[in-house]
Amino acid sequence: MRITSSEMAQRDAWVGQRLLAGEGALFSFVYAGRNSAELLPGWERKTVETRLDADRTQHVLTWTDAGTGLCVRCVAVVYGDYPAVEWTVYLRNNGTTSTPIRRDIQGLDVSFQREPAGEFVLHGNKGDRCVTESFEPYRLVLGAGIVRRFAPMGGRPTNGPGGWPYYNLQMPGSGVMLAIGWPGQWAASFQRDMDRGLRVLAGQERTCLALEPGEEIRTPLNVLFFWEGDDPVRAQNLWRRWFMAHKKWVARQFDLPEEGHGFVQAIRLPQAAGEKLVVHPKALRPERTCVFENPESAEVRESSGAALASDGFAFALPKREGAIWFYRLVEEVLRSGERGIERSESDAGLREGDDEPIPAPARIEEGIDS
Domains in the chain, start-ordered, CATH in brackets? Predict the structure, then answer.
């Protein structure tokens, strides 16, 4: 089973048109009441290309609003040995005052056109509900005018029948696999028009917020993997080979800013050569002290937010092992052997509100059958 040159060419053509030439961004949002598709062409745009290694090239695209100081940064990685591209979008306030409200932030907003014959078919799996139907595969035909929406339940990213963020979108003669990397409440929708087009959106389920000076947020990590032919199982096996070839560690952070605590977790995969991984936890204020505790080893570490941002937090693990560290924010540095320091509340950082609904096509069907 090999990647074909036409699969690589299909990915390269898409990247060249959508990412490098700037013919429509890979993401979208509403800022001060206007859609990003209207705003970004008028903002200053810069592009930086970096060769990460023999098989990966990074493209960093930035758009800056001179009026408010908002900087939008899209960090994309194109793989040289597999027809894959991944990206994450960051929004930062480089100004001196609060930004206007931005809402409906979609880290993935892409469209596809199928051939005249045939139809879009969406392959996926249900999420987990601790029932016999957990992770059950499904196959959905996306006919004209249909909208399919997916989201997990209760903030757990793989919970519920619509909570599995991996999709295999089949088209006549080809397809694309999509993944949404977010350890919280995400949402995705597949919106068919009345002709031959399909729009796919994904991001945090609800976003409506302003950024204070210096604050930054990010979208989920998004992945597209292009394939050709009529065999979605072959595509899934190619995806697995790509993942095993390039993903050495799995790391995640879950943070409750309003409670002042959270956890970081890392899993070392078999193909990881080194036993050490350094992660940089997000959304921890530089002046605050963070105390980490490992419930298995009873080890305790402490660090300031500034040190975590610059030096990171180190995991050292044998192969096929993982670790989880719970952390809490405290008022002062934890002295050796001391416990019970009162935790202060941390700022929530985001002001969340309701989204305006997406205008509905002819038919709307929520998620998949439960």
Answer: 5-247 (2.70.98.60), 250-330 (2.60.40.1180)
